[in-house]
Amino acid sequence: MKKIAIITGASSGMGKVFAETINTYDTFDEVWVIARRLDRLESLQETVPFPVRPIALDLTDRESFRHYEELLENAQANVQLLVNCSGYGKFQAACDTPLSQNLNMVDLNCEALMAMCQLTIPYMHAGAQIINIASVAACQPVPYISVYAASKAFVLSYSRALNRELDDKDISVMAVCPFWTKTEFFDHAVIDGEKPVVKKYTAMYEPQQIVARAWRDAKRGKDVSKFGFIARAQMALVKILPHSLIMDIWLSQQKL
């Protein structure tokens, strides 16, 4: 039975880095890479250290889940690793963002991630692991990124609870909480032709830094992975300070 790793959002950003550095974590017979852009997935065959199976799916389309389940069943897959990197956000007031985009964001960031976990877990065995990309924003309400932050709060809460539920199966779940990271996220987050709502970034990290830390924390069995002093400090402070004050500071930083 083939030992398989599955990575969503693999066409760019952290998903691509996870795919290209997967030998840091373990060895696999096959790596399934999932995203909408088939050409980018196919190009990973040149940079991923194990055989790649490109799977073009739009995870906001629920029909994709039926197709994915069929792939698992037909392969009688032995999935040792699932990395959910698909997701996006918008820098805009919630009510100024088209409803279709807000719904799409929740579909991808929350529903698709949950579906990928639930469909994959029956094909996972003792020692397997799930890594879900959340965000530092998961720990606090963030005006003008409100839907995105709320969706990542779901990811963090769901991942930590699922980790406990799967303890008896010896399957672990870890949420990664990056701070600002240089990826295509910003290409989607900023509205074309408009002045950016978010103007100040306290720190900006490279996806390679986030992923390297995630691999290390995954091996250590952590349920949350955080990289960088600022990210760690912020996640600690928001547990202590009133969220009203945290939002005041954020709005002041961004001159909103």
Keywords:
single chain, alpha/beta, 256 residues, seven-stranded parallel beta sheet
Report on the structure:
The chain is an alpha/beta fold and 256 residues long. 42% of the residues lie in helices and 14% in strands. The protein contains 9 helices and 7 strands; from the N terminus they run E-H-E-H-E-H-E-H-E-H-E-H-H-E-H-H. Helix 1 (13-20) packs across helix 7, helix 3 (63-75) runs parallel beside helix 4 and helix 4 (99-120) packs parallel to helix 5 (146-165). The relative contact order is 0.13.
> How much strand content do the residues show?
5-15%
Could you tell me the number of beta strands?
7
Distance between the termini: 55 Å
Name the average pLDDT. Answer: 93
Can you give the helix content as a percent range? 40-55%
The major pleated sheet works out as:
7 strands, parallel
Backbone structural class:
alpha/beta
Radius of gyration: 18 Å
Strand order of the largest sheet: 3-2-1-4-5-6-7
Total count of helical runs of at least 4 residues = 9
Give, in order, the helices and strands. EHEHEHEHEHEHHEHH
* Shape verdict: globular
Spans where pLDDT lies below 50 across 5 or more residues: none
